[in-house]
Every structure is written in C-alpha cells, then in structure tokens.
Amino acid sequence: MTRQQHITKYISKAMRGIEIAPWHSPIVPKREGFNCVTLDFFDTATLRQRAKDDPQVDDALIERIEDVEIVGSAVDIERLVEARGELGTFDYIISSHNFEHLPNPVKFLQGCSQVLKPDGMLSMAVPDKRGCFDYFKPHSTTADFIEAFFENRTKPRLAQVFLSQSLHATYGGDAAKFCFDQKADPSMVSANKALEESLAAWRQRRESGDDDYVEDILRSFR
C-alpha cells in the first residue's frame, strides 16, 4: 500500500474535504477527481513563486501546485471555514507533515472538530524523529501543547527556533542528508552543533524586536 493509499484509506472522491498546505505534493489532488479545497498560509501565486525560487524544487513540480481556496493559518481553520459559512460540512481533513509545524496544535484540533461533520475524519501523516533532522530534539510534552494553547500562540517561541536550528541533524556529515532510514547507524548521525550561531541569532532577534515568523524547516513541536 502506498503512502497516499494509507492516508486516504477511508476517503472516497465523492466525499468533500480540506487538505492542509500540500504545496506541490497534494494527497487528494483535484486533477484526479477529489472533491477537496486547499488551505494554505500563502495564496496560489505566492506558492508558485516560492517554488520557482527554490533550487531544490524541480520545475515539473510547480504544475502540481493546486489553487488555494482558503488562505490563512491552519491554526485558524475554524474561523476561516466559518467565514465561508461551511462549519460542520466537511467529510475529512488531510494534514500531511503540517501538524508538527503548528504553533498551537490544540487550537487546530479543536477547529477541526467544528469544521468536520459529526462522523468526519482527520487523517494526518507526521514524521518520525528517528529518521530525520529532528533526531536529537527532545519529545514535546502535554504541558508544551497546553501552554501554547493557553498563550494562544500564533508563532513559535524563540527558544523553539534555537532548539531546531542548534540540533539540526544530518547523516554521515552530509548537509543534504537530513532524512535517513530509521535503522541507520546511530554513529553516523550528527547534530549541527551551531550553538554560537544559533545563540547569536536568538540574541539578535530579542534585541531588535524581530517579530517575523520563522518557518521553512522549523518544527514547533516533536
């Protein structure tokens, strides 16, 4: 069974759903007949331009980027769908490799419960830290999730940014190999160890009041 088949095991093309930020790799692409709308932080034009500007994205993949019908943060999914007058009308929500990036996972889950029908389904794919650049990052705790919810967090804390940047793991010393087999030789996995650079960036953001949202490979939670 393929990855797509696992994620869509209980989903049919006749069902109506939302896919969260698929970029150039949608799980339920409209071009294949799925009745799905796309929610993304960026609009369609911005996503395609970002793909063009990214040397690691093949030009052929740009054509796979689908139109974004709902623009905004997945954390605000309830408010965004309510604005369309469609709360409680969706059969499913698909989130592939997005949940770990959210600054407020609890609010996202609560929003999904309002967006879905009573028997609706949330299907998520999340990475395993044993086989990627999060190898050395500690697991998030229930308290971390609750704190983010109580603070109504809309972006990662600077401490989370530091943790992600300073412990970024690679395999065999190759910066391009940040994903690897879970059974890989542990002795071949090493951390970035850019403590001085990461600390300097943290201090600079604090002193300058830099409030930009740090994204790209940053994962808020593990």
| Helix amount | 25-40%
Radius of gyration: 18 Å
CATH architecture of the largest domain: 3-Layer(aba) Sandwich
Q: Structural class from helices and strands?
A: alpha/beta
| Count of helical stretches | 8
Task: Please give the number of β-strands.
Answer: 7
CATH topology label of the largest domain: Rossmann fold
Overall geometric form:
globular
Major beta sheet summary: 5 strands, parallel
Low-confidence stretches: none
Proportion of beta-strand residues: 15-25%
Look at the structure and give the CATH class of the largest domain: Alpha Beta
Mean pLDDT: 91
CATH-defined superfamily of the largest domain: Vaccinia Virus protein VP39
Number of domains: 2
**Strand-and-helix sequence, N→C?**
HEEHHEHEHEHHEEH
What topology, given as strand order, has the largest sheet? Answer: 3-2-1-4-5
Alpha carbon gap, first and last residue: 26 Å
